[in-house]
């Protein structure tokens, strides 16, 4: 471990990060975000905007750390996420409303934090650190408010208001709630909404349990679950803008996940438009439905036996 990595670990500790956020991995991520190689000093620090893959490339090229592609999520979830929450790093400063799962998602050390980094090792550091930590609660509130502005408001049936992150498929999920539910499930109860940022954004565990469903939280949930009590249908909707439709494999997975349901299961693949749908047409499972947000009053039925409704798989 070169001296700069040790200094980065110490610096993160003085910024009140826990042991996981001041370990070697997190220290290296900080060095990449500060654009520092082992031969440089903290006064040389800068704050480029970097994607996770660019951080990993920097560490490979300048610090000899070849993190495997499958560690990208660890870096994002176990280091970068906490750096952002603490106000050390800004998320998508160039486009704050960028979808959270966009490949262009980038991170940048804030200007205020950069001032502290550049003073590390000098006689001015303690004073700079004190000023920064004193101002940090206000800075965190400011950053949180900025992030909140970019969230997507959603109104559920019954007047309940929630918000979801500006994730790639969340605009489609909003349309599914607003248009599909109003047209095809007007008296339905929304039991679950998956958010790109928070998987269990809205989860009516009691409502699902009353239908005989005990969800395994490790199971891959559909994006939206709606119960129609007048017909006792449970509609499982997938936002297929990025992850694809209900294909044969997914159809089987959902049947297994909701095997205990006392309500009939209806499977719906939702697309933003028919152009996107056509890309996935060959993979859509029979005995499912397709809905496109650009033609919200219409449904495409992938079986001639009946229109919208459950099929007896027993």
Can you describe what's shown?
GO terms for molecular function: DNA binding; magnesium ion binding; type II site-specific deoxyribonuclease activity. By secondary structure, the protein is of the alpha+beta class. The chain folds into two domains: 3-149, BsuBI/PstI restriction endonuclease, N-terminal domain (Arc Repressor Mutant, subunit A); 152-301, BsuBI/PstI restriction endonuclease, C-terminal domain (Trna Endonuclease, Chain: A, domain 1), CATH 3.40.1350.80. The chain is 38% helix and 15% strand. The chain has ten helices and eleven strands. The protein has helices at residues 3-14, 24-33, 52-63, 72-86, 111-119, 125-149, 170-184, 205-209, 248-257, 274-280; strands at 89-91, 107-109, 152-155, 161-164, 189-193, 202-203, 224-228, 233-239, 264-271, 289-292, 300-301. The strands form three sheets. Strands 6-5-7-8-9-10-11 form a seven-stranded mixed sheet, sandwiched between helices. Helix 9 (248-257) links the parallel strand 8 (233-239) and strand 9 (264-271). The longest helix has 25 residues, at 125-149. The radius of gyration is 24 Å and the shape is elongated.
Characteristics:
314 residues; Trna Endonuclease, Chain: A, domain 1; 10 helices
Helix-strand blueprint:
Layout (H helix, E strand, L loop, with lengths): L2 H12 L9 H10 L18 H12 L8 H15 L2 E3 L15 E3 L1 H9 L5 H25 L2 E4 L5 E4 L5 H15 L4 E5 L8 E2 L1 H5 L14 E5 L4 E7 L8 H10 L6 E8 L2 H7 L8 E4 L7 E2 L13
Parallel strand pairs: 8-9, 9-10
Antiparallel strand pairs: 1-2, 3-4, 5-6, 5-7, 7-8, 10-11
Helix pairs in contact: 1-2, 2-3, 5-6
